[in-house]
Amino acid sequence: MGTNVLEVRNVTKSFGKLLAVNRLSFEVKKGSILGIAGPNGAGKTTLFNVISGIYPCEGSIMFADKDISGQKPYTISRLGIARTFQFPAVFSSLSVYKNIEIGAYYGGGYTKADIDEKVCSVMDYLDIRDRADLIIEDLPLYDKKMVMLGAALATDPEIIMLDEPLGGLSPREIQMSSDIFKKINGDLGVTLIIIEHLMKYLIALSDEMLILNEGQKIYFGSPEEVVNDDYVIKVYLGEDHEHA
Amino acid sequence: MAVNCNSTKKSIDNKNIFLWVALIALLVVAPFFFRDSRRVMHILTMCLIWGMVAESWNLILGYASVFSFGQLGFVAIGAYTSAMLSVHLGISPWIGLIAAGVAAGIVGALIGLPCLKLHGIYVGIVTFGISLVMPTLIVWGGQPGYKNLTGGTFGLAGLKAYQLFGFNLGSVKIRWYYTGLVLLAIVLYAIYKIIHSYVGLAFVSLRDSQTFAKSLGVNDYKYKIIVFSISACIAGIAGAFYAHYSRIIDPSILELDIFLLILVMVVLGGLGKFGGGVIGAFIITYINEILRPTGQYRYVILGALVIIVLTYVPSGIRGAIDKLAVKIKAGRT
Amino acid sequence: MSTYIELLISGLVLGSIYALMSVGLTLIYGITKVLNYAQGSLFTLTAYLAFVFFSNFVSMNYFVVFFITLALMAVIGFVFEKIFIRPVRRLPGWDFTVIIVTLGTALLIDNLFLVIFGPLQKTLPRAFEGSLVLGAFRITKHNLFIIVAALLTIVILDRFLSKTRVGMSMRAVAQSSEGARIVGLDVDKVFGYSFATAGVLAGIAGILLTPRTLIYPLVGWPVFQKGLVVMVFGGLGSIKGTLYAAFILGMVEIIISYVFGARWALPVFIIILIVVLVFRPKGLAGRWQ
């Protein structure tokens, strides 16, 4: 801990007149878990899209002392930033194995000689190996989310950005997911950035928290204090009960 | 760590393996029934050639989902490469065949570099435009000042036949047929391998979820150029074979009728389905022949057929076969 | 000097025709997302329709025929969408399938002409015979009519799109067909109107140009091909960009034809197009969607 693995500096992304992300700056410490929350339309997913290169933006994004803003998504993936999506964006016509293989081959750079070993170890790690040959389309939501995470993990990333990984899951599945995130962060030292509406779980997971509203930072600091911040309570926590 | 936990590497296409064996067997024995009819053998040989072109088009259009409308341009490049080498330099048509593939593949990559950066429909219009321009270039290359390189409007005639195991393919239709069949088999095998390689996997992933694929490191531009070039290479090889089989090549290969006919083969056979182009080639070439007596009504009927099939059987004949196979399977269990 | 003025006029005439053709194409694309490969066939169809009227009702006034034909083209455009396009739009992956369907339609229509009228060329009368002499240069009255009629058409189209209910609904669908559906527009009908409008535009181009080129079954193809380049050059879905592109490429074609010969026009078009697209991937004024 201590050094920053990612620094977002003055980043702005607009769609026409709408400022989805507005002059946003923050840092992510290496090996930490950053939780991001905020009401709908706060610019959370847009921020992920900007960092992963789907949208161009103004400002700079420093990853390992290099500005990665303006790079193509596949370049950023190979540099070591992986992500998942809010709505399971899996390759639905392919098997669990193939989905993870895609991450290992294109993003991880594994070759025919060692790719099988990599895919198997990822499936073991996430405890989905028994489903290796099943076609994703028919699998339940939890499995889809695990496959998405598995494909991201197979690229050997330094950072994984998780977009609402807990949404739609049962309490038991949320617990299992949280444990896996902690394991990935603790054992493998992967930095995690998590967008989540379920504040209780996000606070429990995070080392630091960032709260966004209308594209701007309204809070950055420890998760313990976020619940005491008046402004955050006013704009965000006030409606948390609806989500919980 | 356990290795090779991936137990089923079999593809979905394998379930149709019996269908393929039956089809190939049919193609191998077909000449024994028709060997006395030069016309039927000619039609069958043309089916093989158009099958190669249609399947190469299917690769870029159906699998890679790139709106490429310039496939006949690559056929022409291949045909003219081999023909010019043969006529002007006396080079063996076998070497011409390889040179044709290489030339078309290189031109394909060069065209792909700027084109494939564009969005879907733009690619279609630019590639279509390039194939429209080629007749002008060919006629220009036939001017006396250029030693009549391309033969101009009249084309290059008197192209040599292939030599095989001491045989000259000459004008013996059945020899051409079997040579074409082997070539088609090689082309189909190559395409099958590509589809089931990491190049093919990249396209499946881009088709299923483009943003996730890119975020996992799939470089779509790179794979599009690779497939564009391979598809052009195959079209070029088919073009060279076509030129030497016809013994003449002229700019009429680029006419709109042929463009449409082959496009119809791909779509009718089944876009993005392995072997769809070949099946389409046989059906359309056959229909085209039986409609020949209707004279000018032929293309009216073909046009109507395209509209009806696309509206009511959009997945093509190959898709319909798949559905039928599923039904039969379901009936059994 | 007078040569250059005459070249300029020829460029304007050609630009006018390309404008009518490509604005029709871009209108259809912008609103319905259909790349209509049968637009050239609609051009040819108008020419044959006008030919039938003129040869059967010899005494009929030119402008009566002109407007009857165009009214018919509006109906044909609407029906064309209903019969050929609408059934395909329900299918998955229709954006590609529909292109092939329009190609199939072109094949069908063009060969119907061949069956009905034969390969021999037909002639169409001009709006006005003779030419005007203005000082050192002369312009045929028909060429002047082409330029004026095209410009008038564009102005009327602009009014139509911005002032009438139908025109505004077309623009709404072009912005977002989903949004238009939500606010209660009958999107299917709007698609029909777009094809009707494009049919009229192709029709005007057809009646204006074919007295110069003669009528034959494939007369629409070269115009369509260049209209396609113009549309992409201008930027898909942008009428303004398309107009600029039409007149630029009209001038380019005349200059190229004058210097190198007419057959080099299309190759030069394609080269210009590729160069422009490398630097501006959306064309002169294009938007992504």
What does this structure look like?
Chain A is 36% helix and 25% strand. Chain A has 244 residues and is of the alpha/beta class. Chain A folds into two domains: 4-80 and 158-243, Rossmann fold, CATH 3.40.50.300; 90-156, no CATH class. In chain A, helix 3 (96-107) packs across helix 4 (115-125). Chain A is globular, with a radius of gyration of 18 Å. The longest helix of chain B is centred in the C-terminal third of the chain and has 27 residues, at 220-246. The two termini of chain B are 38 Å apart. Residues 7-13 of chain B have low confidence and may be disordered. By secondary structure, chain B is an all-alpha fold. In chain B, a hairpin with a 2-residue loop joins strand 2 and strand 3. In chain B, the strands form two sheets. Chain B has a two-stranded antiparallel sheet. Chain B is built from 13 helices and four strands. Helix content of chain B is 71%, strand content 2%. Chain B has a domain at 39-254. Chain B has helices at residues 17-34, 38-63, 71-89, 93-115, 120-140, 173-195, 198-208, 210-215, 220-246, 256-270, 276-290, 297-312, 316-332; strands at residues 156-157, 163-164, 167-168, 248-249. Chain B is globular and about 55 Å long. Chain C has 289 residues and is an all-alpha fold. In chain C, helix 1 runs parallel beside helix 5 and helix 1 (2-32) runs antiparallel to helix 10 (239-259). The radius of gyration of chain C is 19 Å and the shape is globular. The mean pLDDT of chain C is 88.
Layout of helices and strands, plus pairs?
The complex is a heterotrimer of chains A (244), B (333) and C (289).
Chain A (H helix, E strand, L loop, with lengths): L3 E12 L2 E12 L3 E5 L6 H8 L6 E6 L2 E2 L5 H7 L1 E3 L12 H12 L7 H11 L15 H13 L5 E5 L7 H17 L3 E5 L3 H7 L2 E6 L2 E6 L1 H4 L3 H6 L4 H4 L1
Parallel strand pairs in A: 3-8, 3-9, 6-7, 7-8
Antiparallel strand pairs in A: 1-2, 1-4, 4-5, 9-10
Chain B lengths: L16 H18 L3 H26 L7 H19 L3 H23 L4 H21 L15 E2 L5 E2 L2 E2 L4 H23 L2 H11 L1 H6 L4 H27 L1 E2 L6 H15 L5 H15 L6 H16 L3 H17 L1
Helix pairs in contact in B: 2-6, 2-9, 2-10, 2-11, 3-4, 3-5, 3-9, 4-9, 7-9, 10-11, 10-13
Chain C lengths: L1 H31 L6 H18 L5 H28 L4 H24 L13 E4 L2 E4 H23 L1 H11 L1 H6 L4 H27 L6 H15 L4 H21 L5 H15 L10
Helix pairs in contact in C: 1-5, 1-8, 1-9, 1-10, 2-3, 2-4, 2-8, 2-9, 3-4, 3-8, 5-6, 5-8, 6-8, 9-10, 9-11, 10-11
